[in-house]
Design goal:
3 strands, 3 domains, mainly alpha, 11 helices, 6% strand, 235 residues
Length: 235
Amino acid sequence: MYSANYHFGKPTFFLSKQLLGVVLGLALMIGFSFVDYHILKRFKWWAVIVTAVLLVLVFIPGIGVESYGARRWLNLFGFSIQPSEIAKFAIVLFCASYLSDHYQDIKGFKALLPICLVTGGLCLLVILEPSMSVTMCLFLTTFFMLVIGGISKKHTIAFSIPASLAVPALIIAEPYRLKRLFAFINPWASPQGEGFQLIQSLYSLGSGGWFGVGLFSSRQSISFFHSLNQISFSL
C-alpha cells in the first residue's frame, strides 16, 4: 500500500490492477471452456499475423512504450499491453494446429519450414525489443512441441546445436546481459542496478528466514531497505 500510494497516489493501485487481471482471466478461461478447440484451428494464421503486427507496433514512437532502453509495450486506450506475451499463445496455437494436420509427414524438413519461419520471425521481432528471456521461451516452447509432435532425431540435434551456441552469443552481444549474469556472482557491485533484486531477496531471507516475518509485518513493503540504501550511499 505504501509503495502504491507513494508512486501512484493510490493505496489500492496494485490491488485493483491484480483484481482486474483475475476477473478478466477467469472470464476468458470460462468463456473458452465452452468453445470447441477445433474452431481455434481456423484462427492460427490470424493469431500469427495479429501478433506480428503488434510486435511491429512497439517500435513506432507514440504507440510503443520504451522503458529502461527496451521497447516491449503498447499503450492502447489507456492500457499497457506486452505483445511478446501474446506471442506465446500464438505460437502454441499455430504449432498445435499445424502439427495436428501434418503429423504424418512431420519427419521431413519441408513440413517443418512453416513452423520454422513463423517461430523465427516472431523470435526476431522479440529479440529486437530486446527481450532475450521471452525469445528463449518462444523457441523452447516450439522446440518441445516439435519433439512431442514426432520430429526426427537428426532434426532435433540440428535445432539443438545452433540454439545452444546462440544463447552465449546473445549474452555476450549485449553488455547489460553480461552485467545481469555477473550480478548473481557479486550483486553488491551494482546494488541499485542489476544486483538490486538479488540483494532484496537476501534482505528478506536475512530478516525473515524461510517463512518471513509474518503477514503485514514486512518492512520492504514500505521501501525500508530501498530508503536505507539511498541513505547509506548518500553518506
